């Protein structure tokens, strides 16, 4: 191990040694987050927020491109409104934070700080949907929500987090189904093509679905330590909420009908996925398409005449084609290398007196550490290609890892052995009974992640009870 590597070992815990500590170290050292004053809250720092903003901007563009409008609904929900849909309130009750006072005065009715906003949108839709001409309603909002979590970790589980929540109302069940599918595909597109994280698309079991939903679709990703992370969900509500909130419209024949609704959300949790899928023992690795800085110029021997001028000149030229920055501070180049590796900047560009003489630069890619010399005249062609190669490599590495960490189990001995010794996704058949799903969780701590969109069959019988199997399920320990 070289001198350079040694410095990193001192800085962050190796992931093989203690994955949870490695995660905490990366979050801190890469300057993504700091803990807030109230337990479980987080301060997202400039670099962390810049990454989130790039994710957010891409997703916002996709949400608008699929016909949705952004809105902003209140942070507060009256208690009586939250209680209108029975399953929904039961699902969220343990995590709701309540406002009981306004100034010194006790409120007549408690007010919930939104844990999610279904009921607010339902109340609005009940008042604003009258005719089939009012449909569909395709709304989305960016905001923060509060869920009073018992155990918290930055990005993965926090008492307050940022997200978008889409809420739509449609004339028919079929229209709502199409919307549910469409938005899951938008999430899969974002996560695979911008965050370079392969996902499994599927449906949640009834046990794992959203409180109040007819069904929930999900994208599931596998983290480096073999645990799964639910990365985005899209819910079909049928007419359940519409019936509870009396959201009706007159159809073309003048007959009163219930609306059919969906909701879908993706949150700052995805930052946790990004860290745990691509990160390594040198720190964070940010996929190029969402990296706030795609290339960082580090001048070498910058005190020598002409070096800084050339470096700034290079930056101005590259600014036209990539998100580039320069570190011309008087810190040592070695310190800068460490710093930008820790922050996961996709490419480092080194330029010293010798390079200037030879009319070249050195490109060092963050994902593999490989170096290449590139002529200045070819750099504007080479750099975008290299960023593309890095994206592809990150995606393919994550996919290979997921494939290696996906195991078929046909009985509980195989299931338990895989969970204990290897982790990852387990593909196993299920009879559809809640009892088996609960027993698997109790015996192995693995939960059903999703029923994938495929007809694949790995055996004829349920992995747990041995009765006839209905569906293939992906199981895993999960965040
Ligand atoms: Zn069974």
From TrEMBL:
<dbReference type="InterPro" id="IPR006195">
    <property type="entry name" value="aa-tRNA-synth_II"/>
</dbReference>
<comment type="similarity">
    <text>Belongs to the class-II aminoacyl-tRNA synthetase family. ProS type 3 subfamily.</text>
</comment>
<dbReference type="InterPro" id="IPR017449">
    <property type="entry name" value="Pro-tRNA_synth_II"/>
</dbReference>
<feature type="domain" description="Aminoacyl-transfer RNA synthetases class-II family profile">
    <location>
        <begin position="39"/>
        <end position="287"/>
    </location>
</feature>
<keyword id="KW-0436">Ligase</keyword>
<protein>
    <recommendedName>
        <fullName>Proline--tRNA ligase</fullName>
        <ecNumber>6.1.1.15</ecNumber>
    </recommendedName>
</protein>
<dbReference type="InterPro" id="IPR002314">
    <property type="entry name" value="aa-tRNA-synt_IIb"/>
</dbReference>
<dbReference type="Pfam" id="PF03129">
    <property type="entry name" value="HGTP_anticodon"/>
</dbReference>
<dbReference type="InterPro" id="IPR002316">
    <property type="entry name" value="Pro-tRNA-ligase_IIa"/>
</dbReference>
<dbReference type="Pfam" id="PF00587">
    <property type="entry name" value="tRNA-synt_2b"/>
</dbReference>
<dbReference type="InterPro" id="IPR033721">
    <property type="entry name" value="ProRS_core_arch_euk"/>
</dbReference>
<dbReference type="InterPro" id="IPR045864">
    <property type="entry name" value="aa-tRNA-synth_II/BPL/LPL"/>
</dbReference>
<keyword id="KW-0648">Protein biosynthesis</keyword>
<dbReference type="InterPro" id="IPR016061">
    <property type="entry name" value="Pro-tRNA_ligase_II_C"/>
</dbReference>
<keyword id="KW-0067">ATP-binding</keyword>
<dbReference type="InterPro" id="IPR004499">
    <property type="entry name" value="Pro-tRNA-ligase_IIa_arc-type"/>
</dbReference>
<comment type="function">
    <text>Catalyzes the attachment of proline to tRNA(Pro) in a two-step reaction: proline is first activated by ATP to form Pro-AMP and then transferred to the acceptor end of tRNA(Pro).</text>
</comment>
<dbReference type="InterPro" id="IPR004154">
    <property type="entry name" value="Anticodon-bd"/>
</dbReference>
<dbReference type="GO" id="GO:0004827">
    <property type="term" value="F:proline-tRNA ligase activity"/>
</dbReference>
<comment type="subunit">
    <text>Homodimer.</text>
</comment>
<keyword id="KW-0547">Nucleotide-binding</keyword>
<keyword id="KW-0030">Aminoacyl-tRNA synthetase</keyword>
<dbReference type="Pfam" id="PF09180">
    <property type="entry name" value="ProRS-C_1"/>
</dbReference>
<keyword id="KW-0963">Cytoplasm</keyword>
<dbReference type="InterPro" id="IPR036621">
    <property type="entry name" value="Anticodon-bd_dom_sf"/>
</dbReference>
